[in-house]
Amino acid sequence: MDINIITPADATYEEWNSRGVNLRWKGQPSGIIPVTTTNELQEALQYAVDNNKRVVVRGGGHCLENFVADPAVEMVIDISRMKGIRYDEQMNAIEVTAGSTLGEVLEALDRQWGTLLPAGQHPAIGMGGHISGGAFGFLHRQHGLAADYLYAVEILWVNNERQVEKVIATREENDPNRELWWAHTGGGTGNFGIVTRYWFRAAGVKEHDPSLLLPKSPEVLETIEMEWDWEQIDERVFKQLLDNFGEWSSMHGSADTKAGNLFATLYLLNKVTGKIMLKAVLSDCPEETAEEFAAAISAGLGITGRATRKPMRWLEFALQPFPDIFVEQRAAFKVKDALLRAPYTHAQAGIIYRYLTTHTDVPGGAVGVATFGGKMNAVAPDATAFPQRDSIMATACNVGWIDPADEAKSLAWARALYQELFAETGGLPVPGGQSGGCLIAHPDADLADEQFNKSGVPWHVFYYQDNYKRLQHVKRKWDPLGIFRHALSVEGV
Ligand SMILES: Cc1cc2nc3c(=O)[nH]c(=O)nc-3n(C[C@H](O)[C@H](O)[C@H](O)COP(=O)(O)OP(=O)(O)OC[C@H]3O[C@@H](n4cnc5c(N)ncnc54)[C@H](O)[C@@H]3O)c2cc1C
Questions:
Q1: Burial annotation 111-130 (CB, 10 A radius, 16+ → b, else e)
Q2: N or C: which end of the chain has fewer CB within 10 A?
């Protein structure tokens, strides 16, 4: 069978090569192979291996780091046209082809069976790269992570004889490939082969009815948006706001919280943008939870903010959440995130305040703080490969820029802020105490770079903690030749 290889000489090359959303990275592969079926994908991968090409797969193009777009990558296999969502009777699970986007999956689930997968926030993310990072989103406090619903996964892997093979791994206790399934419940992307299909079903469901396999779509969904003008915010108000958010997250972060169906993010934007915003989603939430939340966040601020509440249908929200935040605008960006087991201290809030008010030449710099915990903390740290099951918040130092001339100062801003925030633990959120490590779905290659990681703690501890050894064994078995690799890939033992 002929393989359709798009080379730099082809008119469509640039279009295929620039699918990544983070303009910080640019690759120049000698070939890009778009595939639409598993057979085509298998042939493309075999071709790359036979020709000794450094190969990676691209799905939705939402990688934060240079795992796909990188000058060292020689061949990209593009699976963005490999789509499909159906009920698989034999597996009694919802089967999702890896090139589907999250939005396509949420739409099919809701329209056909009135269900949802509690996955990420951006509908354009590709499922192939998303699920194996754990996949948190608007509803993980209510339902857990999407990876907690993973029943099975199909993978193309490369054996010791350099032959591409297909394997299915399930969570069944007696499945000899169970460890490979486990590795895909939070063990990161681009590590063990190419995922072709995922199957989803909540643990413990016995009924053979596709509408009972996953959580029901919320009957009532409401958004709360709050906004405060920076003009009115001094350091006291800023600290009070962060205190309020931290206290609420702390009080409602346990696995059995009654407020698990409320998720919120505080967007602490640079002062030059004029405002600070909070966006919350409430699904099937009692009225008093919404009121108590809004009151708790505003307590003691002493300034007047704006608040709007809007009822929406779940799908309407999921396909276009908060359009002023989730614009599909391509830009260069860097994300440095951390999980928090306790709220920011006043000293840390003061550092954030300083970076947002004095570095006016980095308008794209912001700090996000989101409520975590809830149901995602009901799972044991080793039951899936995603170990961070005791955090109450996630936070991120984000910076975006359009003009390449702004790159150096933007990166310096995010790195310096992060370093100061976690100065007590060597400049990084070392797991233990206040910090809970980092999310592999938001990879930050600085953690593996001696220039930026002076904590003495290896990069993999931040992402995988005690699960790393197990992932290394999976790596040795299913990628014995180390074909699948990038700046933060699991190393076989
Ligand atoms: C705007 C934005 C919002 C986000 N929001 C969330 C969120 O709410 N929750 C969350 O958990 N994450 C979120 N993420 C992170 C996202 O889950 C990861 O970046 C994910 O890896 C993206 O997958 P992709 O297929 O879109 O990206 P790609 O760039 O195509 O791939 C990303 C990585 O996955 C690998 N990969 C892709 N497909 C496969 C496959 N089939 N088999 C094996 N490896 C594969 C690639 O080789 C690469 O290493 C967000 C990212 C962005 C940019």
A1: eebebbbbbbbbbebbbbbb
A2: N
Distance CA 224, CA 204 (A): 34
- Smallest CA separation from ligand 1 atom 37, residue: 129
Which ligand 1 atom is nearest residue 67's CA? 49
Enumerate residue ranges in the chain where pLDDT < 70. Answer: 1, 328
Per-residue model confidence as pLDDT tens digits over 146-185 = 999 999 999 999 999 999 999 999 999 999 999 999 999 9
Phi/psi class of residue 341: alpha, beta or left (left: φ > 0; alpha: ψ in -120 to 50)?
alpha
Residue 73 has phi, psi (to 5 degrees) of -80, 125
DSSP conformation letters of 77-107: EE-TT---EEEETTTTEEEEETT-BHHHHHH
Ligand 1 is surrounded, with C-beta below 6 A, by 20-21, 56-64, 67-68, 79, 98, 120-122, 125-126, 128-130, 133, 135-137, 189-190, 194-195, 441, 486
Report the pLDDT value the prediction gives residue 374, as an integer from 0 to 100: 97
Atom of ligand 1 nearest to the CA of 486: 49
Predicted pLDDT at 1: 61
Cα–Cα distance for residue pair 409/248, rounded to 1 Å: 34
Which residue owns the Cα nearest ligand 1 atom 26?
A: 60
Which domains, and CATH codes, for the chain?
13-78 (3.30.43.10), 85-217 (3.30.465.10), 221-466 (3.40.462.20)
Q: What is the pLDDT of residue 328?
A: 67
What whole-number distance in Å separates Cα of residue 203 and Cα of residue 181? 14
CA of residue 62 to ligand 1 center, whole Å: 5
Residue 335 tokens read as: 């994300």
Q: Which two tokens stand for residue 490?
A: 């699991």
